[in-house]
């Protein structure tokens, strides 16, 4: 591989959308941020210089960062944030991964505007395991806020959960013609008939899952979260916050200037619906001969796709069940067949003690709700956990008593006991596992204060999704149905609303790794926990020493 250098200058930039102009935190003045294109095996040196008031850190979502959590970019977990006027070089090598991933700010709500694609091409001379596309196109979904998203979340967290809506969803930063004042801000993809296009889809929206479809066209899923998948066709796909999906689009023999909307709108299962509706881009067939310069006939109809209803949980379950890893000779699925350690995490909501006692609200913003995993709401420490771990100074930074199972089991998806949402404990609690432990983790949604689909993201790992179902996980019956042959392997796993998901992974990457819901509100409520994976015996199984420019708190 080669070494690629990037300079990321964090600066304020004026951007206008929906007829509102706002100064946003950006990388190099771009919205969305710059695209990183590398090959498997390449090394990246990304020099991040912070020129804004906000503290910042950047996370390379889905990059495994073997023994190198120092480059993972999670503020207060793997590094102290980069303060104004400071800089830090993210230094990492892409090892054994290829596909679409993305990067984003990993502090406060700055990822609302600070995000961009990462394209990892296969090693030179290595083909895709599918037909060579005629062209590749990146589509990154985001959201636009007319006002400061950080102010919106603060208000949301304080008020106890009201809609924290953005003002529009976007494709590559553009809301599209179905929003006010946005016809000229439309993503357009010109295509030729009878060709294969590779679309690299990324969901960078803060809080919503999206359904996506292109009118009159079929999409073939070939990869998720930078792992090849068994190809399958679908009209509509679901992409959860944090996830990436590569699809092949075969264009048809449509006539020149035929137009089709490529649209996305939310899939919502939680507290009410925040349907601020549909982002549309336009797929347009090219004119065959560009003889005249006249622009296309505005009266031509644009075909619209039909997207599932906003609460379509069955669509979501059926769709996610269809994704399997390729599991070929070249790209095997190394599913752990034996398990060393089993964990069971409930994931849901709780109340802050201030809602039922005269205690003051504990969270950073005095939030009234909490996000909990096994009834623990995670508090980010004041200094970085990874340094504390590396230097053996965890005291006062984190504890190692995260419960491996619910302490008070209940009927998770039935009637929860009225008191469950009060049994919230706050803390920086971690689970410690020895190097190479084969882990099985069941994540169970609870309907304490409402069930909801949660996209759980584990840093530093890809995990195999060996099972999922609705209702309560049944330890007697469900494991017999696990797929240990070709389960999908990914970094962000949806826990079905009112259901459970089972994952397996081998803890072969030492360090401190955050696991959290990728719905930003839930994360701010504390729906997070962290794994400490210990070093192995051999030198190549140990966490690397910290780089000399690692920021301090
Ligand atoms: Cu995409 Cu912890 O993040
Ligand atoms: Cu969540």
Automatic annotation (TrEMBL):
Q: Cofactor(s) for this protein?
A: Cu cation
Q: Which InterPro entries does the UniProt entry name for this protein?
A: Cu-oxidase-like_N (IPR011707), Cu-oxidase_2nd (IPR001117), Cu-oxidase_C (IPR011706), Cu-oxidase_fam (IPR045087), Cu_oxidase_CS (IPR033138), Cu_oxidase_Cu_BS (IPR002355), Cupredoxin (IPR008972), CuRO_1_LCC (IPR034288)
Record keywords: Apoplast, Copper, Glycoprotein, Lignin degradation, Metal-binding, Oxidoreductase, Repeat, Secreted, Signal
Q: What is its EC number?
A: 1.10.3.2
State the Gene Ontology terms under molecular function: copper ion binding; hydroquinone:oxygen oxidoreductase activity
Q: Which CDD domains does the record match to this protein?
A: CuRO_1_LCC_plant (cd13849), CuRO_2_LCC_plant (cd13875), CuRO_3_LCC_plant (cd13897)
Q: Where in the cell is it found?
A: Secreted, Extracellular space, Apoplast
Its Gene Ontology biological processes?
Answer: lignin catabolic process
UniProt enzyme class: oxidoreductase
Question: Pfam families in the record, alphabetically?
Answer: Cu-oxidase, Cu-oxidase_2, Cu-oxidase_3
Q: Does the keyword tRNA-binding apply?
A: no
Q: What is its main location?
A: secreted
For the keyword Protein biosynthesis, the answer is no
Per the record, the domain of life is: Eukaryota
Q: How is the co-factor bound, per the entry? A: Binds 4 Cu cations per monomer.
- Residues annotated as domain Plastocyanin-like: 11-123, 136-287, 402-535
User: Which Gene3D superfamilies does the protein's record reference?
Assistant: Cupredoxins - blue copper proteins
What catalytic activity does the UniProt entry give for this protein? 4 hydroquinone + O2 = 4 benzosemiquinone + 2 H2O
Q: Which GO terms describe its cellular component?
A: apoplast
What is the protein's known function? Lignin degradation and detoxification of lignin-derived products.
Similarity comment: family membership: Belongs to the multicopper oxidase family.
Q: What is this protein called?
A: Laccase
């Amino acid at each position: 591989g080669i070494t690629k250098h990037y300079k990321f200058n964090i600066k304020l930039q004026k951007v206008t959308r929906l007829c509102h102009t706002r100064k946003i935190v950006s990388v190099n003045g771009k919205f969305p941020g710059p695209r990183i294109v590398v090959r498997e095996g390449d090394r990246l040196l990304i020099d991040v210089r912070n020129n804004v008031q906000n503290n910042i850190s950047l996370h390379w979502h889905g990059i495994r960062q073997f023994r190198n959590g120092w480059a993972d970019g999670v503020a207060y977990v793997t590094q102290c944030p980069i303060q104004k006027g400071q800089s830090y070089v993210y230094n990492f090598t892409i090892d054994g991964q290829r596909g679409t991933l993305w990067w984003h700010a990993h502090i406060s709500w700055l990822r609302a505007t600070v995000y961009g694609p990462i394209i990892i091409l296969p090693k030179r001379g290595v083909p895709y395991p599918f037909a060579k596309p005629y062209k590749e196109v990146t589509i990154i979904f985001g959201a636009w806020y007319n006002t400061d998203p950080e102010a919106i979340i603060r208000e949301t967290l304080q008020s106890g959960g009201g809609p924290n809506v953005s003002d529009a969803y976007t494709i590559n930063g553009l809301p599209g013609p179905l929003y006010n004042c946005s016809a000229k801000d439309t993503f357009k993809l010109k295509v030729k008939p009878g060709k294969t296009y590779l679309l690299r889809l990324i969901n960078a929206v803060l809080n919503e899952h999206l359904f996506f479809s292109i009118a009159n066209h079929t999409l073939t899923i070939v990869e998720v979260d930078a792992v090849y998948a068994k190809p399958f066709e679908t009209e509509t796909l679901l992409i959860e916050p944090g996830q990436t999906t590569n699809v092949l689009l075969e264009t048809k023999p449509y006539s020149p200037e035929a137009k089709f909307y490529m649209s996305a709108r939310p899939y919502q299962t939680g507290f009410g619906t925040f349907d601020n509706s549909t982002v549309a881009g336009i797929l347009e067939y090219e004119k065959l001969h560009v003889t005249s310069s006249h622009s296309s006939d505005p009266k031509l109809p644009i075909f619209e796709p039909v997207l599932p209803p906003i609460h379509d949980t069955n669509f979501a379950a059926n769709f996610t069940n269809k994704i399997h890893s390729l599991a070929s000779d070249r790209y095997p699925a190394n599913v752990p067949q034996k398990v060393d350690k089993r964990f069971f995490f409930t994931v849901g909501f709780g109340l802050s003690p201030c809602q039922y006692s005269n205690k003051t609200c504990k969270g950073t913003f005095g939030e009234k709700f909490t996000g909990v995993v096994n009834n623990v709401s995670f508090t980010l420490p004041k200094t970085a956990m990874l340094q504390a771990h590396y230097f053996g100074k965890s005291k006062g930074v984190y504890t190692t008593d995260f419960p491996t199972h619910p302490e008070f089991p209940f009927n998770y998806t039935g009637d929860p006991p009225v008191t469950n949402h009060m049994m919230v404990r706050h803390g920086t609690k971690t689970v410690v596992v020895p190097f190479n432990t084969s882990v099985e983790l069941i994540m169970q949604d609870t309907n304490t204060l409402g069930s909801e689909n949660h996209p759980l993201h584990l840093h530093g790992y890809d995990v195999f999704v060996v099972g999922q179902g609705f209702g309560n996980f049944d330890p007697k019956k469900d494991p017999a149905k696990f797929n240990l042959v070709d389960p999908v392997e990914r970094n962000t796993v949806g826990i079905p609303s009112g259901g459970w998901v089972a994952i397996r992974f081998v803890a072969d990457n030492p360090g401190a790794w955050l696991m959290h819901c990728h719905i930003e509100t839930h994360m701010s409520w504390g729906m997070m926990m962290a794994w400490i994976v210990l070093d192995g015996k051999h030198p190549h199984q140990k966490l690397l020493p910290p780089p000399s420019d690692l920021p301090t708190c």
